[in-house]
Amino acid sequence: MTGLFETQLLGGTVPLKNRIVMPPMTRTRTSEGDLPTDGDLPNELIATYYGQRANAGLIIAEATDVDQSSHGYARTPGIHSEAQMQGWRLVTDQVHRHGGTIFLQLWHVGRMAHSSILPNGRAPVGVTGQRAEGSSVFAHGPDGRLGYMPAETPRPLSTDEVSAMVGTFAKAAASARKVGFDGVELHAANGYLFEQFMNSVLNTRTDRYGGGSMEDRTRFLMEVVDAVVAEFGPGRVGVRLSPFGKYNSMPPEPLVEETFLYVAEQLGRRGVAYIHLLYELLPEGNMETAEFKPRYLDHALLAKARAVFPGAFIWCGGFNDRERAQAALDSGLVDLIAFGRSFIANPDLAARLKHGWPLAVADRSTYYTRCGEVGYTDFPAYRSVALRAAAG
Ligand code: PHB
Q1: Does the residue 2 lie in any domain?
Q2: Distance from the CA of 278 to the CA of which of 84, 257, 302, 320 falls in 20 to 30 A?
Q3: How does pLDDT run across 317-354, given as a tens digit for each residue?
Q4: Confidence of residue 36 (pLDDT cuts 50, 70, 90)
């Protein structure tokens, strides 16, 4: 039985001090660069935030743009400019100084974007020209104010552009390595560009990245995985997937099981360290008996995926206590547990879970704002709260 506080050698090469993962969370605390091409920048504040949370076995830093066309949400960072790389160096230094391990999540949002935050007001790019009807992104409205705007109609990427995008991801991974990240995670979940390609309903392309066959519609992801593994070495690349997910107007995938198992098997062959899945816990917490619904983890399917993928599985799913996390590990289906929201207000989450100390709760209104340290780096560690209380 694996304990939550047991170590792990991720991908056979990255030592983790426990099984607790801080998953990627957009927090919109970037700074503006001097030049438009600088993009939004990581900074000292962001470095402090991640440094405070280095007690996680693995931190996966927030979704980060691989180039300017990937900017779907205002104030999210990138790793395509020199200034951004300098900002990320502050982050990795802080985390390493505190004994932590940090991967960077790389994404391209594809059609989940808006011309008001894209270079020269250009349209988003996508797998086809199909808009994500009914979904919104964080961008500027007609009055220039930031708010949730409908995702715009994308321009389909040409075959050459898709091939070039593989190189863009490779470059982003090389930059991440250069500034000290221990690895990268590819965001192939939640209706962003990789999933737009993988979905057999949405991907009606007829080129070699097209929806005709499983191999074709997963080709973009696999080419990027190969390129990124070549940059970082095997064991330092993870992939986030969300089979059954309908977020960002993804059409239900009729081939969902086949696709998931094919992708898992292919990722395993390519030396991917882990697959990161986002599923809710069953409401009653009973993982054995409850009826499967697409938003809950399908244990039978995961068992099949485990048989074809030799790496680790991370389960992210609203965990906020030690007992349910341990029960998930005890199921033998997953290796690492991600605690998202709990890490916001509990910088010392691992210690709190270990000692049974109470968890603080964050204020949602400070999740995504420019209020700087408020609701971001101003949560104390429990030890200092307890000491202050004892001192009266
Ligand atoms: C997501 O994974 O769904 C996601 C990531 C980053 C965002 C928004 C949504 O800024």
Answers
A1: no
A2: 84
A3: 889 999 999 999 999 999 999 999 999 999 999 999 99
A4: confident
pTM: 0.96
Q: How far is CA 335 from CA 18, 61, 332, in A?
A: 10, 19, 7
Residue 3 lies in a domain: no
CA dist., res. 47 & res. 301, Å (int): 38
Give the CATH number for residue 116. 3.20.20.70
pLDDT for residue 295: 75
On the CB side of 286, CA atoms within 13 Å amount to 5
pLDDT tens-digit profile of 87-123?
999 999 999 999 999 999 999 999 999 999 998 899 9
| pLDDT value, residue 296 | 78
Q: How far apart are CA 14 and CA 185, in angstroms?
A: 14
User: Is there an atom of ligand 1 within 6 Å of 200 CB?
Assistant: no
Choose the catalytic residue: 50, 192, 368, 382: 192
Instruction: Give the count of beta carbons closer than 10 Å to the beta carbon of residue 9.
Output: 12
Q: How far is the CA of 135 from the centre of ligand 1 (A)?
A: 12
- Structurally, the chain folds into a number of domains equal to 1
**Tokens at residue 198, please?**
């993988």
* Helix (H/G/I), strand (E/B), else coil: 340: coil
Q: What are phi and psi of 38, to 5 degrees?
A: -65, -30
Q: Is the CB of 76 under 6 A from ligand 1?
A: yes
Nearest-CA neighbor of 107 among 151, 72, 149?
72
Q: Is 136 in the pocket of ligand 1 (CB under 6 A)?
A: no
Residue 284 pLDDT: 54
Is 368 annotated as catalytic? Answer: no
Q: How far is the CA of 164 from the centre of ligand 1 (A)?
A: 24
Alpha-carbon distance of 168 to 116, in angstroms, equals 22
Half-sphere exposure of 280 (CA within 13 A, CB side): 11
Judge whether 1 lies within some domain: no
What range does the domain containing 220 cover? 8-391
Q: In the block, which residue shows the tokens 């609701």?
A: 375
User: Which residue type is seen at 220?
Assistant: F
Contact between 60 and 276 (Cβ < 8 Å): yes
Domain-located, residue 339:
yes
